[in-house]
Amino acid sequence: MTDNSMILPINQENIALAARALRSGALVSFPTETVYGLGADATKGNAVANIFEAKGRPSFNPLIVHVPDIETAKRYVTFNKLAEELAVKLWPGPITMVLPRVEDCSISELASAGLPTLAIRIPANPLARTLLKEAGIPVAAPSANLSGKISPTEAQHVADDLGDKVACILDGGSCAVGLESTVISLADNKITILRPGGISREDLLPFGYPVEEAEADAEISSPGMLLSHYAPGCSVRLNAMQKNDGEAFLSFGSGFEEIEDLNLSAEGDLKEAAANLFSALHKLDKMKPTVIAVTPIPNEGIGIAINDRLNRAAAPKE
Questions:
Q1: The pLDDT of residue 264 is above 50
Q2: Same domain? 176 vs 292
Q3: Which residue range forms the structural domain that includes residue 297?
Q4: Residues 149 and 49 in one domain
Q5: What's CA 315's distance to the chain center, in Å?
Q6: Do 246 and 285 share a structural domain?
Q7: Is the pLDDT of residue 228 over 70?
Q8: Which of 68, 85, 93, 181 could form a disulfide with 132 if both were Cys (CB 3.0 to 4.6 A apart)?
Q9: Closest by alpha carbon to 45, among 63, 29, 25?
Q10: Residue 174: phi, psi to the nearest 5?
Q11: Measured torsion, CA atoms of residues 282, 33, 268, 230, in degrees rounded to the nearest 10
Q12: Please, which pLDDT band fits residue 158 given cuts at 50, 70 and 90?
């Protein structure tokens, strides 16, 4: 049985406890608007190494550093004009910017996999920002799950996956967005989407800068670029229109009521589907099917991010 004693309700006392744990070098899981993060003091190499060890994460895969405000972010990364514009409009929110590290940056190089850049964001979840302010340190925090597995959108998902590898889990309920942040590079005065997420390409176009997507075989320069990622224990079959023996069936919209096990959004709402995606995969994976079959998802807006996660979940495991 999973030990749930480390799951703590969010109150000032438990936030203070979690902040002390972070400052001591321990791992703490906390909710953001995207998914639950596995946090550690980003300035301590040993603490950051604990993240990789707990997740079984390849050390060439960079981490996102979370800070409470723009002023704090500027201590660690250099902002160009484009970054300034986006930060004012989109932070706090589900978007991560990959920016050059400042000279003598105190963030552990392990957090950025030895790259001269750093992935950084300000979470929209006010409880997450309260924890960051209380801790008084930048917090490296990938999703709080074993590397390559389904991302957690509830505290129980973290407990089931990581158990006593974390000092505590702050329970903030279900995550509102349910997909990881969009990760963008801002080099050469253009926006390059390295990982689609809670902010869509259409959300970025009004800023008036070119918006491109990273090539599929691009070098890993941000989190979420590994081919096989976000995967349940079984295989995933995409664009399914029928249910085969031994399969669990995940649908979207209407027309599959007789065979579906779960529906991401009966109304065909892509934002609702995004918020439900990882939770649904967790539930279906617990059924121990041979395959999770998923109906087609419209590849538009946040549906692009949903399909990105599903394609990675369905990719051959390395």
A1: yes
A2: no
A3: 235-314
A4: yes
A5: 18
A6: yes
A7: no
A8: 68
A9: 25
A10: -75, 145
A11: -40
A12: very high
